[in-house]
UniProtKB/TrEMBL annotation:
This is Glyoxalase/bleomycin resistance protein/dioxygenase. The lineage of its organism: Archaea, Methanobacteriati, Methanobacteriota, Stenosarchaea group, Methanomicrobia. It comes from the Archaea. Residues 7-174, 186-305 form the VOC domain. InterPro entries: Glyas_Bleomycin-R_OHBP_Dase (IPR029068), Glyas_Fos-R_dOase_dom (IPR004360), GlyoxalaseI/FosfomycinResist (IPR050383), VOC_core (IPR037523).
Amino acid sequence: MNDTTITLDHIALQVTNLERSIRFYQDILHMQVYGPVHLGALSTGGRILGKVAGGHGLLKGILGSISSRALRDQYTDVALLSSSGRSYDILLVQERYPETNATRSVDGNTIFGFSCFLSLAVDSEILGWDLHQAEADFSWGDPGLDGTIFTQDCPNHSLYVRDPDDRLIELIPNRSDDGSAPFITGLNSITLHVTHPDKSKQFYSEKLGMKVESDITRSGQGKRFIRLESTEGKICIILYGLTKPDGNPIEAGGYGLDHFAITGCQGAGEKSTDAIDIWMDPEKLSEHTGSSYIRDYDGYWIECI
């Protein structure tokens, strides 16, 4: 493990309706969208390329691996979301069933949500009113939790908004921002459903060298939040465990998260043929990304950059 600060690079989300999700991220979160692109129509020989500079560019390029991925590609459409126009933060993936051509619905407990930093140029109170006017599903809550926990003594509350597939997105005012960004300044952390929080905590501690910043149990609600941070104190991953009234865990897993990528780590593993791997800069086609891919305790793919 190296000493570089671990940060969340991007998230690949599976969605039920790609066009609907694109509208949400454009209209509500003001992100730049590149796509959609039908993977089956692209040539083989590499990865999807998107030239992005100064907020301009076209998604173009190629998807690799006409092998085990070939059938999936024929029924998959994707779009890239960027907050800065220089690199992508979110990859949206829509798949259809080969037998019926019907869009696959997102189900199960995988990614609970994620958090983004709001630019200082955005007044969160005015944003709340704008979301109300847009009839978006949102709430105020304590930072780093689930949007339902609100305490009066918390100095700064986050604004939580749900995407079309019911994932919770936490919007956090970025105190260190210079105010030049128009809306979102980037990703902060990802919240994952986990079946056994202690086993997942052990995995991320041993494999990625992360430390526990806090471990909160809401026994009356059957909720547990474990906030993991790098050695430099940067929160990157939050583990979210749920238990039934009888005390048994609610199992994590299902369909909804393709993978997520983090920088600053050197996880051991082999490249997944299941996770969609993307470069944004065509100039780097001949370079090796240095990424490796590992699965965590619940089977989530992690790209280590």
